[in-house]
Amino acid sequence: MRLKDKVILITGSYTGIGKAIAKSCVREGAKVILNGLDDQAGEQLYAELGPENSAMLTIDITEEDAAEKLVDLAVERFSKLDALVNNAATIVSSNIRTTSSDFLRKVLDINLVSGLALIEKSLDQLIENKGNVLNIGSINAWGGEPDLLAYSISKGGLMTMTRNLGDSLFREYGVRVNQINPGWVLTDNEMQIKAAQGMKSDWYRDLPDIFAPAKRLFAPEEIAAGAVFLLSDECGPVSAQVMDLEQFPMIGRNLPKSWEGSHK
């Protein structure tokens, strides 16, 4: 098992990608600290994984003492902390006309600032255990969609933080920091968003090639597979790296023939 006896804190792990990462980590022998906002969803996952493999704390990561409480829980329950997965995030639509300063600050606080606070509070444990950090970003970090302005800014900042700390912390302490930028993932939350937008229930079965050459979206478990590799010792000395898990190139993408001539 690739994560045997590792203790891993995963924020936003009651649902979606975070939940898939938590389940994959336990299958690989890890103990996990679960976190989220929906206490019922957390209790269900905690019951599934079992108290011998998990602990949970329902708390908003932007609360002043949230980072300290989560790290303390890991140490109290399992005596150490080997890895941190900064997965919790808010995905909200906004553009240049709707992104106020207060709105942007709120998004940055959740998607970026809280992650930095968790790294800082985890650092002593990570140094002691030669641990690592995995940040979950988004391909929107590379520029993003017009109506995902604040979200894209936050994920771009997260990517810069990953590269900065991945170099400095590894050189000084041996603590690796990496990031996964997922593409479009079919999570329960994505299904709820599309339902609220009035889309049909099986919208994901009929996607344009421009968005999904594979004719489907990623499953959360596929993102989790990449996470397990980066969290494990088999990753070796890889640090300050960003893994784009997408089904088309972000740069130099080949447009479908139907687009030829229409955007010249």
Briefly, what is this?
With 264 residues, the protein is an alpha/beta fold.
Q: Helices, strands, pairings?
A:
Layout (H helix, E strand, L loop, with lengths): L6 E4 L5 H12 L3 E6 L2 H11 L4 E5 L7 H13 L4 E4 L14 H28 L3 E5 L12 H25 L2 E7 L5 H9 L23 H12 L10 E4 L19
Helix pairs in contact: 1-7, 3-4, 4-5
How would you describe this protein?
The protein contains seven helices and seven strands, in the order βαβαβαβαβαβααβ. It is α/β, with parallel strands linked by helices. The chain has two domains: 7-183 and 220-242, Rossmann fold, CATH 3.40.50.720; 190-217, no CATH class. The chain has a seven-stranded parallel beta sheet with strand order 3-2-1-4-5-6-7, with helices on both faces. The longest helix has 28 residues, at 101-128. The model is unreliable at 260-264 (pLDDT under 50).
Category from helices, strands and their pairing: alpha/beta
Using the CA coordinates, give the radius of gyration.
19 Å
- CATH architectural category of the largest domain: 3-Layer(aba) Sandwich
CATH fold label of the largest domain:
Rossmann fold
CATH homologous superfamily grouping of the largest domain: NAD(P)-binding Rossmann-like Domain
Order of helices and strands: EHEHEHEHEHEHHE
Could you list the spans in which at least 5 consecutive residues all have pLDDT below 50? 260-264
Residue share in β-strands: 5-15%
Helicity level: 40-55%
Shape: globular
InterPro entries: NAD(P)-bd_dom_sf, Sc_DH/Rdtase_CS, SDR_fam
Pfam families: adh_short_C2
Protein name: Short-chain dehydrogenase
